[in-house]
## 1
Amino acid sequence: MTSTMQAVIAKQPGGPEVLELINRPCPVPGDGEMLVRVRAAGINRPDVMQRQGNYPPPPGASDVLGLELAGTVEAVGPNVQRFKQGDRVMALVHSGAYADWAIVQEGATLPIPDCLEFIEAAAFPETFFTVWSNVFERARLAPGETILIHGGTSGIGTTAISLAKALGSRVIATAGSHEKCKACLDLGADAAINYRGEDFVTECKALTDGRGPDVILDMVGGDYIARNLEAIAVDGRIAQIAFLGGAKAEVDFTPLLMKRVTLTGSTLRARPIEMKAKLADTLRERVLPLIEAGKVKPLIDSVFPLEDVQEAHGRMDAGTHIGKIVLSMQNGEGKAHKGARA
């Protein structure tokens, strides 16, 4: 282990070109924390928002980008009980994942199943924590119910499709091209709607005998807010997790009353470690067995070495990816296989 590390920061708000690889001192783990040798880190939409200056890290958190990682434990701080040096782990972090070394909190860390490589494990924490919290806890999706998943080929979308199908629900997904709709179907979705040429409200009604989906997972916002209320079933639940299409809209909320709709929303990054620890325990119990049984697996779009982080963010910005984009810190083993999906 060296005293310095490489890490990625945004030197100013802007496009992928503002991302810079710098040298930093290696961090030291504190109470309940571990130092992890990072082998791979997932790229997520909040990273892009942070790069653009629209989603700063919580107070006291590192300015190094990255919310999820996979690697091996190098050192443990006081009161760490579940992990030891050499363990393979994947973790959700406030920031700091785009680096050779990172500090993780034990409560937000999970063991990597033997069936997953580091690249796949790095694509797990942010999306699986988010989907479980919003779809299965807040929106209470149950077996036999129908869920509409917007952005079906995003990291969140592919995770939600896989988990909902594995746990017995019917899945309708939206995507913006024939190729992406086919990818949703290949992943297990029962139907896929090309939102560029079809109206998802009309199509959802037709696919559910006029009833509408029981649950909607939406990261678009904007004019989708009103359309989701139109599409949702009576006693349905809408989980809002982002506003890529805008956070403001003119909405007639009458359907919210007439259909007895639950509209819920949340963010994950700034929530307390106690909440994340409970979520990690649930994922360990409910989701890791699905991974180990081969019923669910993170979908990888492409892998880039850390020094090509600008190119990786460019692919995220282009919106052509299907599944997760991952950074590799495995000494050249992660040479970019752009567009190759695992």
## 2
Amino acid sequence: MNRLHLAALCLALMLSLFARPVSATTTCTGTMTNLNFAPMTGGVIDATASFSVTCSTFGLAVLGNAKVNMCVSIRSGTDGGSTLNPRRLINTFNDPMNMQLYTDAARSAIWGSRGNATVPNPLLLQFNYSVPVLGGNQTLNATLYGRIPAQTGLNAGTYINRFTAAADTLIEFRYDESIIGGATMPTSCTAGGDLGTSSQFPFTVNGSVPDSCTLTPKPVPNMAFGNVPGPITSNLDQTTSIGLVCSGRTAWQIGLNNGLYASGATRRMRNGAGQFVVYELYRNSPRTLRWGNTLGSDTLTGTGTGAAQSLPVYGRVGAQAPSIGSYSDTITVTVTY
């Protein structure tokens, strides 16, 4: 009689254990590497970053299954203004550079944000994984495809957009768990199953525009003093101009050397017989500032605008009595930036 009572008690305990409700926890976290573009030199620049997200489930008492429906949103970024199309990078002067983020290698599908009026398409992911006694997980990977389109008038500098604030990125998901058999995939990342705890995946996008300067045209147009009869009795003044295109905010200096036939710091033109005419080149129209080649001293300085700049060169031949002939010299123009 006592044995029968013990067996019934054991059976009741076993049934009670299997009837207890299951308490499980599903969490999802993601990471994104930084997106680093090569320096912008005028054409299209492409780059990629890597996204990884892991969903984990713990607490199922026996072999089980979990399914997750997820939306991964990227917004405009901390430094991106308020638009997703185009997105942008900025430098320390708040100069903008357009860029965009995509979910596909063809760069035709913008990686957007759920609920955004302009670009509402987030990255969509679905997870389906087994959950053994000690828990289970699944990791999915995706590529972020970035592009800086061709654009002109960009200022030099380092450009950045930080997607590091809580509002810049978002992982949203719904999940379902099953002890025995398959779980049911939630209808979307916002409907069906249980609501998961949202999270972020901070990253930065980096670009740059290098300092650059180009002389245009090359060579610099000649300075011609013309034909002069007899001795030179008064100043002969002429000008030419140096054409320069530098990227915006690029600081530059232009130096002129002393030519081929200088005597110390005195510039001279020479004829075929080896005779000379003294002349000088200046940075200003009154011809009081000699144009030399010593950086920070007698060079012409300025800052690029991204557009062509015309920089006058003022020449003067003073009174003198040279021999008859044709005189010339060659000056080397050096741009330092």
